[in-house]
Design brief:
By secondary structure, the chain is of the alpha/beta class. The chain is built from 6 helices and 7 strands. The protein has a single domain, classed as Alpha/Beta hydrolase fold, catalytic domain (Rossmann fold, 3-Layer(aba) Sandwich). It holds the Pfam family Abhydrolase_2.
């Protein structure tokens, strides 16, 4: 059995003191391949202030000369082992157990690889996560034991992608297009002309989605 991945707790960028997470809504940022914890952290200026934001660093170093970090190897989507995505998601859950167990709620916002890991974590523990934002990412093909429960819970998921994104293969996009509405309360939008990136328009949509999540969470509380 492969050794469990461990996230570097000291690399996490927090929008507030770590001790402030207790009883507050936590939003985790999961960057894409070749980036690091600094990549998505500036997005916090577009997000509701009520969240404590924690930007995580992926556990792996991609092959030289690629910079940054990675959540799992990318040796080609067709031959990729879905267990690599699962190991990364398990590492995120273990980090939450160790450093954010007292949060009032936990949401996930991931880009590309980070988006895939976000959905995978939600599939592993559907009761753990209040929602997910998947930017230019996808749902990993294959089945997980938590999928049935996820389909019953139907947590809110925002999925945004661009028409000119040539990084994520078409068959994975097609799979995600079918899979997400079956397992989540999907808010999806395709942005004309957008490449494998994030636009101002998309960030506005994400902020509106998160505002709705806050309203719903505070109503439940």
């Amino acid at each position: 059995m492969p050794e469990a991945l461990v996230l570097d707790a000291d690399a996490v960028l927090w929008s507030a003191e770590r001790s402030a997470v207790g009883g507050r809504h936590l939003l985790l940022l999961l960057h894409g391949y070749g980036a690091d914890e600094h990549d998505l952290y500036p997005l916090r200026q577009y997000l509701p202030d009520a969240f404590v934001v924690a930007s995580l660093a992926a556990p792996l170093a991609p092959p030289w000369p690629a910079p940054g970090r990675s959540w799992y190897p990318i040796d080609g989507f067709e031959g990729a082992d879905a267990s690599h995505v699962t190991r990364a998601a398990q590492a995120v859950i273990a980090w939450i157990d160790a450093h954010a167990a007292g949060a009032a709620s936990v949401g996930l916002l991931g880009f590309s690889q980070g988006g895939a890991v976000s959905l995978q974590a939600m599939r592993l523990e559907p009761q753990r996560f209040a929602y997910a934002v998947n930017l230019s990412g996808y749902a990993t093909p294959g089945e997980l034991p938590g999928d049935a429960e996820l389909a019953e819970r139907r947590p809110p998921v925002f999925w945004g992608r661009g028409t000119n994104d040539d990084v994520i293969p078409g068959f994975v996009v097609a799979h995600t297009t079918q899979w997400l509405p079956e397992h989540a309360d999907l808010s999806g939008r395709v942005y004309p002309g957008l490449t494998h990136s994030v636009s101002e328009q998309e960030l506005g949509d994400v902020a509106a989605f998160l505002d709705k999540r806050l309203t719903a969470l505070d109503t439940v509380d």
